[in-house]
Amino acid sequence: MSLSIMLSFCFCLAEKKDAKLREQAAEQAWRHFLLSHNRVRVTLDPDTAHPMLVLSQDNSSVRRETERQQVPKAPERFDTRCCVLGCEEFREGRHCWEVELEGEKGKCSSLAVGVARASLKRKGWINMSPEEGIWAVQYYEGELMSLTSPPTPLYLSPVPTRIWVCLDCTQGQVSFINADNGVEIFIFTDVFLKGESMRPWFFLGTNAQLYLRDSTL
Asked: What's the whole-model pTM score?
């Protein structure tokens, strides 16, 4: 290969790399714009919390305990999966909220964040998947996966612990964005709402806890 051809080849590669970087920067800028204009404050609904979950007084954080708590029985409370819903219901428009995931290193089995149909069943075993009415990502044994059917591993390094959950009712999409760098983690498309509301949804495994960050301030 002649020197001129080699230089031309290297120039083309550099141009493609620069174009890719510009495209990524534009995408991140667009995501930042969407986040800044569609932030909502989300709080946890204590009436839906599984008895092994303990909420903070302001309903902005939750942790899983090893024993069931004494809580009133209610038809809206989860009784098998350690889940809790957000108080807010969304039927139209775009809505984004930030979740920080925490757990004792090496002992946190799993936790998951996303959205669920308001009509999601609360009693008995729940299959955490879109077929059940849940669109979420799950932190499991140090890795992140999307709860598709079957789950899809997401090879991210480092694994983000601060995640934006973004619900677009108009487009029928649920996306997850790394809150540290604005990079998209995963997106569910063709989320069919069936004319009903969607609610923030959370699942906590052993030794897990999470915080809802009020990014509207």
From this structure: 0.83
